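Bump. Still looking for 4Fe-4S ferredoxin-type domain-containing protein structure tokens.
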Amino acid sequence: MVSLKALRAVKVTPGLAARLALLPFRRVKNPCIYCPGICLASCPTYTATGNVLLSPLGYSRFKEVAAKNCLKCWRCSFECPLGFQLPETYSPEPAKPRLHSLKPGETVLVADLELDAPYAEKLAEALGTGLALVSGVAARYSEGRPLDAGATKKLVKRLGGAEALVAASPEVSHALGVDFFALHLAELGVKISYEGPVHVPCLLKPVEEKLLKALEEAGVKATEVDDESCIKQGVKKGYLYLCPRAAALGATTIYDLASTQELRGAAKVK
Ligand code: SF4
Ligand code: SF4
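Sorry for the wait, here they are.
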């Protein structure tokens, strides 16, 4: 749903609303050409620089600028009234997610080889879940490639359906339509003793409320919430991060806490 912040940033006149409403019927490949930038206020590279070239409007017109500067954080797509998935339009070649290995379990943690496999291996062992390692997801969030819809569907089916799966990273969750594992901390039997500021990953913005509730139920006391910055621009000292990539930047992550703190034993995620 379009946020108030986005609506305040752009004057949505009746004419503009009518133009946008008709776009889906016109087979328009790039609606950014028609839209004045309803999602601008959500774009971290635009808010950091004030430069329209470094915004969805610029990236949709100049793919080489986008490939280099767009963070592929997907924040704009969550605000776009047309649901345009701009961050996956920078390369014409679809990425095909594939299964690399599978250790079965009642609940299976899914991780991408390039993104989060080392954290997922530790977590799956601590939680007593199965583990599926896949490839091909990372390219969507690093290169801006679309995902091959058929290959994605086939992979989820092969893994036993989204209900039995939890994703080890926000990227895998977003790409495969599988819940991020932290949404099920209580069911997985994880208790986390942490009090301090928490960062909400860009790709989990649509489930922010549910995520913060799940963290709270597991014992996390969030004194402050940062749901505006992207870790690709750097991490803040003292914050708890939920993105595996943040660990490489020296941040404290939920992976360290969830796999080393008291676990009550794995349960099936419902
Ligand atoms: S992504 Fe959507 S909201 Fe953003 S500029 Fe393009 S059409 Fe407008
Ligand atoms: S993916 Fe992120 S950085 Fe790229 S245009 Fe969208 S909001 Fe801006």
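The chain has 13 helices and eight strands.

Edit: fixed formatting.
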